[in-house]
């Protein structure tokens, strides 16, 4: 989607979370949890209007959360999740982990040939029938051009729970994040305790060896008495 289309609209017509969804580079490492595993920013907080990682979830449990996924090296979202916030109809979906997903942004074209069949109304990408948009951004651009706004496209959503690939809710995802954090802290404490204990044992052993070790006799070969 063209950034000019966004800038031409008033802020009240183009919500901040939608602008972040279209512009954000998801799956970058979270700077607040650099040392943690699985710290990619793959969740969009609708209320805070910025991306977060799973370890940030404890601070956003009461917020509306939208999980972003990856397909063919591109950001996608589940149709079921996105439909709570906006009209995702007529956008060509793809199947990922038994769920329908749509691309968030337009993808680069690999071929310029235009044959017969359906094509994206915005970027002319070849599509399957009956779809007329290849991505969410292409549909938004078309809606803005035709309606001069997003009325009828955006939907009222007061609650949006985070879902995983198996259809679970935020509780499962949050528990996994908290369990991972707790396990990491336990491992750190165990390592610190073992290191201190080992140092004490080694120090004690060395001190005892220096005090109790008997002096060794010097082994010299016997000498024969001289003959007179």
Describe the structure.
With 228 residues, the protein is α+β, with helices and mostly antiparallel strands. It contains five helices and nine strands. The protein has a four-stranded antiparallel sheet with strand order 4-5-7-6. It has a three-stranded antiparallel sheet with strand order 2-1-3. A two-stranded antiparallel sheet has the order 8-9. The longest helix has 43 residues, at 170-212. It is elongated, with a radius of gyration of 32 Å. The N and C termini lie far apart (116 Å).
Average pLDDT taken over every residue: 80
Rg from Cα: 32 Å
The total of beta strands comes to: 9
Unreliable stretches, pLDDT < 50, 5 or more residues?
Answer: 167-173
How would a textbook summarize the main sheet? Answer: 4 strands, antiparallel
Question: In what range is the share of β-strand residues?
Answer: 5-15%
Given the structure, what is the number of helices?
Answer: 5
Q: Which of globular, elongated, flat, extended, rod-shaped describes the shape?
A: elongated
């Amino acid at each position: 989607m063209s950034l000019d289309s966004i800038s031409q609209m008033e802020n009240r017509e183009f919500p901040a979370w939608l602008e972040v969804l279209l512009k954000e580079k998801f799956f970058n490492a979270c700077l607040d949890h650099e040392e943690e595993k699985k710290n990619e920013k793959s969740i969009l907080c609708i209320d805070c209007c910025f991306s977060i990682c799973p370890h940030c979830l404890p601070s956003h449990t009461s917020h509306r959360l939208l999980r972003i996924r990856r397909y063919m090296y591109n950001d996608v979202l589940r149709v079921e999740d996105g439909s709570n916030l906006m009209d995702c109809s007529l956008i060509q979906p793809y199947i990922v982990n038994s769920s329908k997903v749509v691309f968030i942004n337009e993808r680069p074209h690999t071929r310029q040939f235009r044959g017969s069949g359906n094509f994206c109304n915005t970027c002319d990408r070849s599509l399957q029938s009956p779809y007329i948009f290849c991505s969410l951004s292409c549909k938004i651009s078309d809606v803005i051009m035709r309606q001069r706004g997003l009325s009828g496209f955006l939907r009222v959503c007061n609650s949006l729970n985070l879902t995983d690939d198996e259809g679970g809710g935020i509780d499962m995802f949050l528990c996994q994040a908290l369990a991972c954090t707790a396990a990491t802290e336990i491992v750190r404490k165990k390592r610190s305790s073992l290191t201190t204990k080992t140092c004490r044992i080694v120090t004690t052993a060395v001190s005892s060896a220096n005090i109790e070790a008997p002096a060794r006799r010097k082994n010299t070969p016997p000498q024969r008495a001289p003959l007179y």
